[in-house]
């Protein structure tokens, strides 16, 4: 058995083309694995397997499906260390972040084990005709799941668990940078009792080609994507040809607002979490910091001190808080944002220069006085750089916070609840962290508005993304 091959119909197989690609450890730049690269012929085999397995899966009672998902949570929870190590190896994130991700990833199996038995419907009378309206939710069909490199485990389980709970079969195309974690999950799902063929994994260097191919197969009814807004748009266009149901978790440009009545220590702790969880490589990462001018000096000093205390290094070593970025191009992009902001007048409070040597490292960096014209105010930084600005007027800061095509998450720090709730409601975002730097929770509906996406993952809504509503108009 080789966990670096394709996983189709419960078997580990070479790609039909025999093609493979390398996976790199971002801390050392060493090749850690050579992985089979799927193409369209492999995708066809996976679709055939998914079709067969889905019939078997749908014949099971919701309680049986639920118990298999629950078992997956138990098994993954018992092996968090192994998953965390693999996540660090292929993604680079430090150990605490990797453990946090593995735990979060496992929790989706527990949450959706509980949801699997709660696919509720409705029976009522039509107001005029008096006929019965019977509404029920049914599995939507084979689902294609495309996931990013920043959370190699959690972005997969956040889709697999609700799809299986809903009664669907899935084909996962993990990110090319980080396919190993998803492949390593497969033996665990087998052990939990997931039937062969229900979950298939197709790492590939030809993402565009194989995903487009699958979205043109009439058996595919859902495409659930997490990644950049640009690729999301491409998939929406592909999905349009067969009107495949899309769920899109796309980019963000999160503002973080600290009002003059905030508890500054709480705001600094929240800002650290919102900025530095996953080294800033998160769609939820705080991208723009708006600090009220009356508390700006205190916040900047305390936040910079907290950033300075973080230890950078190989995430597998003890005592390391932050690891490398995922690859050279991400590191170069982050460095470019800093150079651009400084050239336009920003001041470097901390960091700002890349270390020499192996690994895609970039240090925790704080910029103050960042002008609105800086690129990092408008684009996702996706790295450990905090861009600080000040404000004095509530209306003005709400306008600036909403001035983006994105709408995933915003953060608000204020101890005046009347004001704080008013501000939250006026922010054009799918999620708001109020006096908290972390919004992700398997029990909550995660997702964005505007160009941050369509649909929600987690919560009660997460399973509905993989279901269709059927209405029967009946008389009896
Ligand atoms: P990406 O869009 O480059 O890649 C995401 C996935 O799509 C990968 O598996 C990739 O191989 C695949 N892909 C790339 N081109 C494709 C194509 N033409 N057709 C089909 N698949 C294709 O994104 P990334 O760089 O891996 O991840 C970073 C982005 O993801 C950021 O913008 C971030 O905000 C976003 N993200 C969003 C969420 C969320 O829940 N909203 C969560 C994590 C990351």
From TrEMBL:
Chain ranges of the Aldehyde dehydrogenase domain: 12-471
Enzymatic class: oxidoreductase
Molecular function in Gene Ontology: glutarate-semialdehyde dehydrogenase (NADP+) activity; succinate-semialdehyde dehydrogenase (NAD+) activity; succinate-semialdehyde dehydrogenase (NADP+) activity
Active site (UniProt): 249
Pfam families per record: Aldedh
Top-level taxon of origin: Bacteria
Keywords on record: Oxidoreductase
UniProt GO BP: gamma-aminobutyric acid catabolic process
Enzyme Commission number(s): 1.2.1.16, 1.2.1.20, 1.2.1.79
Statement: the UniProt record of this protein carries the keyword Oxidoreductase: yes
Family statement: Belongs to the aldehyde dehydrogenase family.
Record-linked PANTHER family: SUCCINATE-SEMIALDEHYDE DEHYDROGENASE, MITOCHONDRIAL
Name of the protein this chain belongs to: Succinate-semialdehyde dehydrogenase/glutarate-semialdehyde dehydrogenase
